[in-house]
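Handout, page 2. Input:
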Amino acid sequence: MTARIIDGNALAAQVRGEIAQRAQALSAQGETPCLAVLLVGEDPASAVYVRNKVAACEKAGIRSLRFDYARDVDPAEVMRKLAELNADASVHGILVQLPLPPQFDEAAVLEAISIHKDVDGFHAENVGRLSQNREAFIPCTPHGVMKMLESVDAPVQGAEAVVIGRSNIVGKPMAMLLTNAGATVTVTHSKTRDLAAHTRRADILVVAIGRPRFIGADMIKPGAIVIDVGMNRVPDGPDAGKLCGDVDYASASEVAGAITPVPGGVGPMTITMLLENTVISAQRALARREARS
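Output:
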């Protein structure tokens, strides 16, 4: 068996085209979608992420604002900027690039973002609404995974789904989304006993454990849909330094029914769903404005 490749680049291009049309329509009605991004420090990976997000906004017709701060900035200064952006009706999405330096209370920063502009979906109220299957901003990576499953007509309802990873950014919201979609979900992690016993019964396997090529073919149910959220560098050997996922793609693709590659899988969809959330926020702002008029 050779797995069907779920091409994140192709799907992202298609969805971003639709987002650009929606952004253009909103702009024509006087509500140009706008995303504000705050970057603290000079972490190279964070800088690349922010640059990619800003570039994606420009291509989609979404206005972007970027605010850079030194690593040793007083957190009060960043909190003042968040309050200013919350009050700015022309700004629809606010994103603080994580991780933050140690002087910050990360949870407090995320809670300071208006839930109406929390396009990362990390505010506690949005997390709670998601758990209740109510309208909420959905964290971008899990949201992108659901779009990828939809793109291959994955039968989520009634499926056995296993999520490896329990982070607030991927694992937990991923489990909630799959549960809301009707799957029977098991959340596992690095401390799970006999992890393979769980993964081998998964119709849908989502891997976000942060270990290079951790999941091999012997841990995958034949015909399963495998979503690899990992992004690592190969530590040694002939491929040292190359990007790879948490799944051993070469062997897994011989067993799985469908699989995402790394790179070119989940990554492009994460930024795409950030754009989607920003446009959704602008649509809601327009609806509120029209309701007042």
